[in-house]
Design brief:
single chain; mainly beta; 2 helices; 8% helix; elongated; PKD domain-containing protein; signal
């Protein structure tokens, strides 16, 4: 499907229909959704797929925040453009105005996506559900959670002015990569998720963004700062709740998905997961002679 932003979709509609089109009952309708009405200028194709299967793949669930829907995704609506766009419009996807088919506008209400697609005569070959909805179902099955913080540790001893090394343990559910699929009818979507960045907030009013898991500290590094992800406290945690700073690590997961069975389509979105930790930071004490 050729994706369009809302603005682009409005421009497309205004360029094809310079005047408003009055939608009248009784227009031509193709599909199995009785609630779909066409108009004199549009042919609306509404298809609903009532057959779906849950996402598969992913890892063993641990403290997941799944938001999987139990009902089938709502239908996408296919509306034949009348008149058809110019021959150089991307919606033709390599076809010509004389070919046996037409360019349709595709609208998927759950994700508010609008696109255009060339569909051969005989009805839409495109999926009757929004593939991005299936991509979200696939991600739900992965059971993604917040970062598994390896450092700082709750029992660790940290001091003002001493570099702290930050890193996380990597697993499919906490950092990725993680893959899963989800299907509805004849449509199958494959999704791949991996953490793109982690925002560390230290409770002292500062934060740092790290693009990677960080580097595990080695004793040979001494007092050197982390080469990839670290922080140096400028004040102690004295006076904080429990005498510790409340630290958060917020991961942004980048999800890329593709339709592996059905009309060619692909896209991406992000997911957010967070973890918390408590960090005690003290002042270095000078040792007298």
């Amino acid at each position: 499907m050729r994706r369009l932003t809302t603005t682009a979709a409005i421009f497309l509609a205004s360029s094809i229909f310079p005047t408003a089109v009055a939608h009248a009952d009784g227009g031509p309708t193709v599909g199995n959704d009785p609630g779909c009405q066409g108009s004199e200028a549009w042919v609306s194709v509404c298809a609903r797929d009532n057959s779906d299967s849950p996402g598969t793949g992913g890892q063993k669930p641990i403290a997941a925040s799944s938001e999987a829907a139990s009902s089938s995704p709502p239908p996408c609506t296919y509306t034949k453009l009348a008149p058809q766009p110019p021959a150089n419009n991307l919606g033709w996807d390599g076809h010509q105005p004389g070919d046996k088919g037409a360019v349709y506008q595709v609208y998927c209400p759950e994700t508010m996506r609008i696109g255009v697609e060339w569909i051969p005569d005989g009805g839409p070959a495109a999926p009757p559900v929004d593939p991005e909805v299936l991509a979200h179902r696939a991600v739900d099955s992965m059971k993604l959670v917040g970062p598994d913080i390896a450092s700082p540790q709750a029992t660790g001893k940290y001091a003002v002015g001493v570099p702290m090394w930050l890193w996380v343990n990597q697993a499919p559910t906490t950092f990725g990569p993680n893959t899963a699929t989800a299907s509805a009818g004849a449509v199958t979507v494959s999704a791949r998720a991996e953490v793109a960045a982690i925002i560390w907030k230290f409770g002292d009013g500062t934060s740092v963004t790290c693009h990677g898991p960080g580097t595990a500290y080695q004793a040979s590094s001494g007092m050197n700062p982390s080469p990839t992800c670290g922080h140096t406290f400028a004040k102690s945690s004295a006076g904080q709740a429990g005498q510790k700073f409340a630290l958060t690590a917020t991961a942004t997961w980048q999800v890329n998905w593709t339709v592996t069975a059905g009309a060619v389509d692909a896209g991406q979105f992000t997911e957010i997961r967070q973890s918390q930790a408590q960090v005690g930071v003290g002042e270095l004490q000078a040792v007298g002679n």
